[in-house]
Amino acid sequence: MIADLKRRLVNAAAVPYRSAGRYAWHFARGKLGGDPIFMAMLGERLLPASASILDLGCGEGLLANWLHTAGCFHARGDWPPDWPAPPRLVGYRGIELQGRDVARAQRALPADIRVEQGDIRAVAFGRANAVVILDVLHYITPRDQGAVLERVRACLEPGGRLLLRVGDADAGWRFRTSLAVDSLVIRLRGQRLGRLHCRSLSAWEAELADRGFQAHARPMSAGTPFANHLLIARTG
Fold it and tell me: Is the dihedral of CA 145, 175, 229, 188 positive or negative?
């Protein structure tokens, strides 16, 4: 039943990206179907029940469209009875540096879902009860990583959480595979891959602790050859 739900969710969430071009549609189908983070967001209660999300480095806004689609399925009664209800999306703001991805998101997403072009190192964050940063921070310097995390902590409402996915630089061939795929995707998007600033999982955990977060890590690369971990962090 869950496999069938996933298939139908992937198909439905990818359809709006047809209007943004063949690349956007194929990328959406591949990412939503192959990345375990999306089903984990639904099945593991990673987000608050009523979620006001700040999505930093949101790309084409796939997470927003995924949660919106899941909410539509649930509202019409098309949801497994033994699965938790999907989070209710009461607010979403995505920030993405690449203008092409922002344009694709704006063409595909519902009008009430906000995606804007901006640099996460400089743009004001506002307030949210969930901040999501997936596979993004290694593109900026360690100093900027720390500054972003400091501002994330300040923007979180009481009881809020940060979902930070990172690669573990100590993971050997799995980490090298992650970097190779990362480089390929960047080139397919027509972008240039600059210097990366990667860390071990323990170093990421220490960085969060230094910024006042209490975090626990869990693997988030099931079904893939990657070395990704999701750090689920709250303020103390």
Answer: positive
Query: Which tens digit of pLDDT belongs to each residue from 148-161?
Result: 999 999 999 999 99
For residue 127, give the nearest of 54, 214, 236, 48 by alpha carbon.
54
Among candidate residues 112, 132, 108, the one with its CA nearest the CA of residue 27: 108
Q: How far is CA 47 from CA 18, 20, 67, 199, 226, in A?
A: 28, 28, 10, 25, 23
Q: What is the spatial distance between Cα 152 and Cα 131, in angstroms, rounded to a whole number?
A: 7
**How big is the CA angle at 90 (ends 213 and 52), to the nearest 5 degrees?**
15
Q: What are phi and psi of 78, to 5 degrees?
A: -100, 65
* pLDDT band of 193, cuts 50, 70, 90: low
The token pair at 95 is 């920030």
Read off φ and ψ for residue 77, nearest 5 degrees: 80, 15
Q: Which residues pair with 215 in a beta bridge?
A: 233
Residue keyed to tokens 């940063």 = 133
pLDDT at 191: 66
Residue with tokens 């998101």: 105
* β pairing state of 228-235 and 156-167: antiparallel
For 119-148, the DSSP string reads -TTTS----EEEEEEES-GGGS-HHHHHHH
Instruction: Report pLDDT digits (tens) over 1-21.
Output: 789 999 999 999 999 999 999
How far apart are alpha carbons 6 and 18 in whole angstroms? 19
